[in-house]
Amino acid sequence: xxxxxxxxxxxxxxxxxxxxxxxxxxxxxSGTGTWTKTWEDNFxxxxxxxxxxxxxxxxxxxxxxxTLNRWDAASVSSGSLxxxxxxxxxxxxxxxxxxxxxxKDKFSQQYGYFEARLKFPxxxxxxxxxxxxxxxxxxxxxxxxxxxxGSGWPNVxxxxxxxxxxxxxxxxxxxxxxxxxxxxxxxxxxxxxTYAVLWEPGKITWYIDGVQKxxxxxxxxxxxxxxxxxxxxxxTWPGNVPDGHNIPTSVMEVDWVRVWxxxxxxxxxASGAPIGQTLGFKALNNGKFASNNLNxxxxxxxxxxxxxxxxxSFTIVDAGxxxxxxxxxxxxxxxxxxxxxxxxxxxxxxxxxIGDWEKFTWEDRGGNKFALKSNITNRxxxxxxxxxxxxxxxxxxxxxxxEEFQY
Length: 407
Ligand SMILES: [Ca+2]
Prior knowledge:
Elements: E1 35-41, E2 54-55, E3 67-69, E4 74-77, E5 80-87, E6 96-98, E7 100-102, E8 112-119, E9 126-134, E10 142-147, E11 156-164, E12 170-178, E13 193-200, E14 203-208, E15 211-216, E16 225-233, E17 250-262, E18 278-279, E19 282-283, E20 289-293, E21 299-305, E22 314-320, E23 323-328, E24 334-337, E25 346-351, E26 360-364, E27 369-374, E28 380-384, E29 390-396, E30 405-406
Parallel strand pairs: 3-6
Antiparallel strand pairs: 1-17, 2-7, 4-5, 5-6, 5-17, 7-16, 8-13, 8-17, 9-10, 9-16, 10-11, 11-12, 13-14, 14-15, 18-22, 19-30, 20-21, 22-23, 24-25, 26-27, 27-30, 28-29
Calcium ion is lined by residues 42-43, 79-80, 255-256.
C-alpha cells in the first residue's frame, strides 16, 4: 500500500484533550518515568518559525503527484498552524497546493514521547498526517503517529510503523482507531484530538487523547527521527482526484506539537549549539574564519579569511543523538573527518548525508565560543598552525587555544 516514493506513513499521536486551554492530557502517560520537554511549537505569533520548521521542497510534489508543496500554504494565526489545501485547477496535475513541513536538520530525537493536538479536514481524497522519519535520510524506518485516508476509511485513523524485517524486506505494522461518529459529525475529522507515540527501545505505543490505541515491538528502530506534518490531497493511497471533481479549500489545524525525553533512557538534542543557524566561525589561535577551500579539495582551512562570505558559511545541523553536523553553504556538502589521511583533516567534498564521519559533539564554552569533538576519532578539532591552518581532528584530547572557535 505504501511505496518509498510516497514515503508516507503516518502515525497518530495523541493525547487529547477536551480540556480547553489547560493541556491536562499533554503529558506522557503516567507510570512511564520522569520526562523532560525537549521541543515544542505552540504556534503563537503570526508566522511559522523557520528555526523549527522548513518545507520539504518548495514547489515540488512529494507524496501526492496532485499536490504542490508550498511554504505559503502553512500559516500561523490565533495560536495555531493552518495547513491549507487549495484547488488551483479542475484538471491536470498538480492541481492542489498544500504544505509538507518538516524539522529535518533542525530537530530530531532518539526515543521519547511525541504528540500533536490537531484536527484535519475529513472527506474523500484527504490525506493528512503527523509522522516521523530518520534524521540520517534513510528509509525505512518510518513512524506514522497519525494518518487519515478519507477515501478508503472515512471514520478511521491509521497508526503505522514501516520497517525492514529480518529478511531485509520492507513491511508494516499497522493499527487503526475507529470513531463511532461520522467524520463530519463529531468524528476524528471535526474536533481537535491529541495524537501521540511513546517510542521506547524495542517498543512503540500509539495514543489518542491519552488512550492507548496500538503497540508494536517489531524491529523497532533506534535512529533519531525528525517530525513531519502535512495535508496531501489525492495520491496513490486515497486515489487521485478525477478531472472535473471539485475539492473545496481544506484546512488541517494544529494547536501544538510537543516532544518529551524520558530521563535516563533517551538522548536529548545537542545542547548549546545554534541548531539551524547559518554562520561563520573563526579559530581563536589566529583569528581567521574557517573556509571551504574549493581550490584545494574542499579542505576546511582557517588561514586567510578575515570576514564571512559564502565559502565561510556553514549551517549547524542537528545530527541526532546529541550530535551536530556542519553543512558548507559553498557546495552543500557536510563537513567530514577524512579518516584516510594521517592528520585527519576536515573536508566538505563528498558527504550529502550525515554518517558517523560527519558527526561532532558541540561543546559550548560560553560567549559564542565552542569546541568540536569528532565522533569518529574522538579528538577535538584543532586549527593546525603547523599545517597551513587546516582544521584537523587528529590529536587533541582536551581543549586548548588551538581548539577554540567562535561564531
Ligand atoms: Ca497553540
